Amino acid sequence: MTAHLPVLQVVIPLMAAAVCAALRPARVAWAFAVLVSWTVFVIAVLLLREVLAGGTISYEIGGWAAPWGIEYRIDVVNAFVLLIVSTVGAVVLPYAGDSVEREIRRDQIPLFYTAFLLCLTGLLGITITGDVFNVFVFLEISSLSTYTLVAMGRERGALTAAFRYLVMGSVGATFIVIGIGLLYSVTGTLNMVDLGLRLSELTATRTVPVAFAFLTVGISLKLALFPLHLWLPNAYAYAPSAATAFIAATATKVAVYMLLRFFFTVFGATFSFDTMQLGFVLLPLALVAIFSMSLVAIFQVNVKRMLAYSSLAQIGYITLGISIGTVTGLTAGILHLFNHAMMKAALFMALGCVIYRVGSIRIEAFHGLGKRMPLTMAAFVVAGLSLVGVPLTVGFISKWYLILAVLEQGWWPVAALVLFTSLMALVYIWRVVEAAYFHPSPTDEVAAAVREAPLSLLIPTWILVVVNVYFGVDATLTVEVAGRAAEALLGVPR
């Protein structure tokens, strides 16, 4: 069974999604989804441990050898991303039990868990496959299920947000499949490793740069890179709390992985950064995103939208690390994939606790919550400090390595911008803290009846809060894995 862990990583949640759709009552569907998510998490841990100990794993589907058959190929890069996705899924699904019952019609709850497991399947499939057309197939699975999750939000704006996401996601997927088709037309292969070998001899042709351009635009849409980010704020704001926490922590991270895999493994770092000058494209977009999205976040009165714009700024930090194109820069970017997933999932789950008790996430609804919901607001504060980059949190580790990478290039103004935008993050996090701790509670009876969120929501939230602090105090494991992933992408021998 151990030899088949790569395929089980995808097959188990895929088959479980079909089963989940038929389960009644809602609590049975939830318990089944939780069991599946923890199974997937254990598999991801075992795969990462095996990769760190023994190197790259290659699994041939149906016994057909690559490149003729479909290959699942796991190295330290995607093993780390598999761990991120499965960890978030394993924590969010236990949280979803009570949260979903409050926000979604009871007859739709089994369908919610079906869509959730399909989204999990798609994200894991994108990450684990070594075949570029399979990337597109799993991308569509995850995208269609994500549109469904967003549309299940209780407000009418959820349908509009899902439709906008559908339109822009379809454009991005179209660009990606066109790029893949162009690569196949000149190489005759879909295997990533084989593509990398063949493209090294074909970079002088016109087709390869065109394919590169299509893939760049398509993947940038999926990862919400400025200015192709318009779908993200409403999608995060209107989706159910559990769906927002999962999507915000995983979907854009897997899109970043796609960017890394195509531009470093398939096209190669030399072609991407020297020939196509990818760094000169990503760098200004990342800097604009970091500043402008942080600025927009400051003026939001809806806390979900505030954190959505914050996510766009954090994507800018990740892209900045990648655009540098060095081991330290890539280490910072890959490290922030994990760290941002943990901090943003914790923040959105804390907001879900507020929605559960208060029913609103406008800043004025937070007045006095520091006393009425002390554990929820404490979780928000710690995760918020991590987002700012305060020492002893994972956010500090990410920004430390990012500033090191920037200073290696002598880019002092960029380092100053990173520090300044961290202070901007402190401003919008402080607006929530001020409302919760320094404004009096409303005096009406409904507000007075607000109490702490149930343990079923608080425990998963605090698990992620503890992760934010633990890996901020001892980042040995995450830094080592991110560093090895960066070296693997750049072909640096150990």
Strand content: under 5%
| Poorly predicted residue ranges | none
Mean pLDDT: 88
What's the arrangement of strands in the largest beta sheet?
1-2
- Our count of helices gives 21
N-C termini distance: 31 Å
List keywords for this structure.
494 residues, single chain, mainly alpha, 2% strand, 78% helix, two-stranded antiparallel sheet
Task: Describe what is shown at a glance.
With 494 residues, this protein is an all-alpha fold. The protein has helices at 5-22, 26-54, 76-103, 109-128, 132-151, 157-187, 192-199, 207-222, 232-238, 241-266, 269-275, 278-298, 303-324, 327-358, 369-372, 374-388, 394-408, 412-438, 445-448, 455-473, 476-490, and strands spanning 57-60, 71-74.
Write the layout of secondary structure elements.
Blueprint (H helix, E strand, L loop, with lengths): L4 H18 L3 H29 L2 E4 L10 E4 L1 H28 L5 H20 L3 H20 L5 H31 L4 H8 L7 H16 L9 H7 L2 H26 L2 H7 L2 H21 L4 H22 L2 H32 L10 H4 L1 H15 L5 H15 L3 H27 L6 H4 L6 H19 L2 H15 L4
Antiparallel strand pairs: 1-2
Helix pairs in contact: 1-2, 1-4, 2-3, 2-4, 3-4, 3-10, 3-14, 3-20, 3-21, 4-5, 4-10, 5-6, 5-10, 6-8, 6-9, 7-10, 8-10, 9-10, 9-13, 10-13, 10-14, 12-13, 12-18, 13-14, 13-17, 13-18, 14-16, 14-17, 14-20, 14-21, 16-18, 16-20, 17-18, 17-20
